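Problem 12. The chain below contains 190 residues. Write out its predicted structure in token notation.
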Amino acid sequence: VGPEHAIGCVVYPAVRVLEPAVVEHLFGNRFAIGEPDGTSSPRLTRVAEVLRNAGLDAPVRHDIRLEIWTKLVANAAYNPVSVLTGGTLGQMMDDLGTARTLEAVMNEAGAVAESVGMRVPMSPRQLMELTRPLASHKTSMLADFEAGRSLELEPVAGAVAELGRLRGVRTPMLDAVLGMARLRALVQRG
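Solution.
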């Protein structure tokens, strides 16, 4: 399947895996979609219609890459920090030191996004407040860690750090958090 067949999608619902092939829906039903090149197309309209008819919120975005980067900036911070702290989103946001760490990582990830032409339209504080309704939830990465599953550190935070190196953008806080989360996962596996 070539990239010409892809439609971008940013998935927002919070879920957790109870056991293999059993997923519990916790919160949300938003699936933002868009053509990778930013155009409108009949297939995009059809996909949005199908999702909406299924009861899902499916906003069509003309810059799906910016939506992807906005979520990635938040996840590059929340996910590895949650593995280190064991905290819910709210606990991490409400702890002053942890919130400052989240903010620093989000600022660095935002700088990486800018280096590829994506200016995230929200500050780290605004991103944190946007996730406030999910305060009682654990990140999916923390749930995976607690269940002994492999972590998606590399495709989330690792990818941002690597792109930063390639683009000459310094990410010292992200690198530190990522390094500690990698070690924590390694120690857990034994």
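Discussion. The chain has a mean pLDDT of 95. Students who got a different answer should revisit the alignment rule from Section 12.3.
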